[in-house]
Amino acid sequence: MYWYEYALRYHGSKTVLFALYLLVDSVREAESCLRSQGWEDANLPSSNPQFYDPAVDEHVVLGRGDDIALKVVLISSHNWPGIVPPTDDRDEAHYPSLPQLYSALAHRFLDTDCPDFRRYLLIQIDYLCQDCPALASPTFVTERPSDIQQFHLDWRLRSLSMLRPETIQHLRDIRARARRGEWTLMYEGTADLGGWKIDRTYEGKLVAMMQAREAARSAGQGTE
């Protein structure tokens, strides 16, 4: 199944393609198939983001030549909730639906303990939220599984610092309670209950200070 940037672009995101990421049922079988067609061991650039969790994700990078456009990354689908590689040969069947893509990224964001991988997942989810209007629809929330609904609301409200460990644990606790049927959805967000709340007052002061500096710099250039 097409994954990451390739899947994002399919759903309207304006992200660029770094390599072709594929979720597969068996990394070894997929690797063997590609090697039989001339694909060889390859490396991604050192600047490439952390696209997997080293503790749990099996993956292989293959390529043809030095062109990054000819790099394929095979990743096991087994750690991605709700993702089952299709058996249908039609190309469009190999793209995840928007709900599948979002939910899998969100759950992995909460599941992983790898900060760099979580940061990469944050970028992926942000691209979806920016470029896919469907994610802002009230029905998108209610149609998601109950254990990820509050995560989506809090993400869109932007009141919590999502990468902070305090926020991750807070949202993990909510997910666990939702799975036990002990959570009532809070459309106003949960920043007052836990997590690391963004200080909008302090943020506003920083913005004002930067704007004042820029105005002073522009005024100084105008008198030269």
From TrEMBL:
It comes from the Eukaryota. This is Uncharacterized protein.
